[in-house]
Amino acid sequence: MKSNHKIIFSGPVGAGKTTAITSISDIPTVRTEEAASDETKDLKDTTTVALDYGAIILQDSTRIHLYGTPGQKRFDFMWEILTNGGIGLLLLIDGSDSNAIKNLKFFLSSFKNFINKTSVVVGITKQDVNKKYNLEEYQEVLNKGLPVVPIYEIDARSKKDVSLMVETLLYTLDPKISI
Amino acid sequence: MNRPNIANIVLSNLDTLTENTLAYFINSNLCQNAKLALSQNNIHIYILDLDRKYDEYLIQNVELHQQHIIGIHLDSEQNPLSNRMTLVKKPLNVSELTKAIDKVHQELFKPPVLPTPNKETKTKHSAKIKHKDQTHRNLYNAIDEEKNEDDIHLRYKAQRYVGNNEDVDPQTDDLQKIYINAENYFFSSLLEALSAGQSNRSTVGIKTSLGTMIYHYKENLISHDIEKNKLKLLQTTPLINQASKFSLNSSPPFKEHVMDAISFAWDTVIQTSKGRLPENTNLIKPVILLTWPNFTKLRIFRHAIPITALWSRQRISLVETAKLLVVPQRYVFSLYGAMNALGYAKIGKFEDEVTQKSKVIKPLSQQNNSNFFSKIMSHLFKRK
Fold it and tell me: Could you say which residues from 210 to 249 on chain B have a Cβ atom under 8 Å away from some Cβ of chain A?
């Protein structure tokens, strides 16, 4: 019997969710992109309108589904549907966006119930492009006692960085995993 | 000029790292009876690697010239190749090497007859010897090789930085071997310089016995003019009486060797730590994780993520951490040492543990996911 496991990638438009999924997916990423309209078109030409889908396929053929949520707030009704039964959340924030801190707070609050049930790892992208905040400023938002939320500066194109996020997510769920 | 009653040593046919390490050791204050020979005229001792190709002519000639050889070797069956040869087994143990040098030194120079020291001198002398022994022991712990069990985990090459100390029982064991005096190591000066640069918003020059570093506070970068091998020595070897000095200045950066300052500082603490802790670190009070380290930019070693994950959700002591995760304490100590040095973690009070007792990990293993997670991890590691 094939199990239904999924990891959720979320974050604002242009944070690198599609790229991150592609960098660790064992299958070509399925994208539901459309030409961008509204404020999104200032950020990129196309954007995810329903979801992105990739998968990690284990040796025994078990699939870990990788779902990317659409970034626009008006699709937030999708978020709850997508997170249902998810292992945990990888939250990507575009570090070159002057609203990055605001976005971080917004997404943490939007996924609060899911995070409380599972776990979250935050990845700040594009810090090497045009960094608007230092990592310490993001950490200040996150570090309010236990649990201490993991946060990394990442390159969404790097398999190593995204794998580290997944690894961290799994260890925060169960530090006693042995490999 | 060669000093009287100091044996002059020549290092012969050693690999570069061993040669640099021994050169540094011999010229430090840890080696009191010998120094590296400054010329070929007055050589007393050759240190020779018997496992590498060596010049047999040299061995034949030491008797002729009344010289000595300290032969370092791996083979337990190795016999001295000359009656003027003293053997020291690898991996090099600093106290054994010092013993060998002192023995040869005694043969070379008649020991002076010392007047009976008065009580005060005697106390000072004992304290000095005690300090020196401790330093040797610490250095030994620092340069010894890692255990083979660690070699299999290639992903975490940095595991070599956790040393090979056995676990300790805080109630019954001598804890000296798990502690280091930070002031004896370069990282202490480095962190002080970084902090001074940040608080004064100034470039900082760090002068060391092996070269100069400049900390550029705006970019949070370090540039230096130190060779790679020497840099490693600087990071790992005690700097007895050679503490690095720093000063606020506006030196231009060196063009080569530019590194991220935090990554370098982290690396230096890890390399120094070798599974040991800063002196007086409490083993049974809870660890408080203040910030999750940015591991995409820092050297990570085996068990670093699960240990941090545990601390991120639970107040638990260093010793209990190792016990709960079933990992050798040295991994926990190395990680905590680095986190503490960079301000990511500290030791709390017992009250913190009580306050936070209700907040412990909610393992998904309740849903029997542990094996499944292991499979995902193995899959990810295989592809890296």
Answer: none
CA atoms of B355 and B25, how far apart (whole Å):
48
Domains of chain A: 5-173 (3.40.50.300)
pTM of the entire predicted model? 0.72
Asked if pLDDT for residue B104 goes beyond 80, the answer is yes
B116-B122-B123 Cα angle (round to 5): 165
Q: Which residues pair with B259 in a beta bridge?
A: B222
Strand, coil or helix: what is B325? helix
Does the CB of B98 have a partner CB in chain A at under 8 Å? Answer: no
pLDDT class of B244 with cuts at 50, 70, 90? low
C-beta atoms of B315 and A151 within 8 A: no
pLDDT at B207: 85
Q: What are the domain boundaries of chain B?
A: 7-108
B77-98: average pLDDT: 81
- State whether residue A102 is helix, strand or coil: helix
Q: Whose CA is closest to B301, among B329, B328, B270, B326? A: B270
Those residues of chain A that have pLDDT short of 70 are: 1-3, 33-50, 71-72, 74, 179
Backbone angles phi, psi at B223, to 5 degrees: -120, 150
Query: Can you read off the two tokens belonging to residue A108?
Result: 């943490």
- Chain A interface mutation, best of B298, B335, B364, B370, highest count of A Cβ atoms under 10 Å: B364
pLDDT tens per residue, range B38-78: 777 778 898 988 887 777 777 777 776 778 899 888 776 77
Chain B residues whose beta carbon lies within 8 Å of the beta carbon of residue A145 = 356, 359
Contacts of A158 (CB under 8 A, 6+ apart): A23
Report the CATH superfamily, name and number, of domain B7-108: Response regulator (3.40.50.2300)
ipTM (interface predicted TM)? 0.90
